[in-house]
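The instructor's notes for this session suggest beginning with a concrete chain rather than abstract definitions. Hand out the sequence below and ask the class to guess, before any prediction is shown, which regions might be ordered.
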Amino acid sequence: MWLITSILAAVIATVLWKLLEGKYNLGLLGIMLWGLSAMIFVDHILGWEGGPFLEMTTDGLVPNGIVLGLLMLIPILAVWGASLIISRYRENSKNRSITPGGD
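After discussion, reveal the predicted structure:
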């Protein structure tokens, strides 16, 4: 299910990126989420030993597949948020240096 969760998040980010016309750096978020989806898909293919391809449970520390998918989104959202803050800071510092009379 973490594959479905990551693909759903990637689709939502891509649709928002198209609707909001490049605001909020959603292109970067979409690329990161599609990369996550591709990595999980490859992991599923390499680890598949027959049986169901998508499972609700995992053998790791997080037993629920949906919760695991949501936990995988946290670092991506943190990196995206940090890049958004940094890009806004750079835009504001450029605007301050361009204003007349400001040093």
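Then share the key points. DSSP finds three helices and no strands in the chain. The chain has one domain: 2-46+60-98.
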